[in-house]
Amino acid sequence: MQHPFVALDLGNSRLKVHRFDAAGGEPEFLGAEEPDHAKLDPNSLFAAGSIRSAGLASVAGERAERIAARFAAALEIEVPINPPHGLQLDVRHPETVGFDRLYAARGAVARVGRGAIVVDVGTALTVDAVRASDGENGRGAIFLGGAIAPGPSLLAFALARGTAQLPHIEPELDVPALGRETRAALASGVAVGLAGAARELVLRISAEAELTDAPIVLTGGARAFVRDVLGQLGRRVVVEPALVAQGLRAAVQDLE
Predict the structure, then answer these.
(1) 100 in active site
(2) Which of 36, 90, 100, 228 is catalytic?
């Protein structure tokens, strides 16, 4: 049964909050905060008694416990941290796979109803393969692994931090590949290089996972850096900004 649900997605740099209503459909994005700054007040976001269940997806350890406790107290419900994702993991070390990748994979299969290549562009660029099973709402899908690379901001930071004279830049969209001065060359290396990396990873992972005709499900706050190049591959590209939240909701519904 559908009912109001709150998804808390705690990534490397931000906590993102989405609300799903009882009718289903797209979730409402309620805001984001840096993990160590309690900017979002759950008492002002939600009417008393309006939320029936919630869940928190986290890669952040102790921060997750503090955030879950804050929302649980306000909502007067349990807020499970990283509930069982409901996937089968066909990887060598399942315990090392980030929950954000797993919930995104679960959300992708639930969204498209079949196996998919999942591309998440944020602090990191992740490209993962997931094969569908007979379970409903993505349950039982098989996570095959994938690749992890730096996202645009991390690339720019690494270039500035790891060299003697290169400046730090803010990543920009739609820059030319041919940079005619240092900052433009850096902008190209970050934006064009990232797009090329995403394209190559999608092609090779698709081939190795035998998912060459599978749709690409794209998410993440920096997804615009790769959307155009993925659209040139001649495959269906589904953009789902709240993919981790979608997978988290499906996981919590398994427990109800």
Answers:
(1) yes
(2) 100
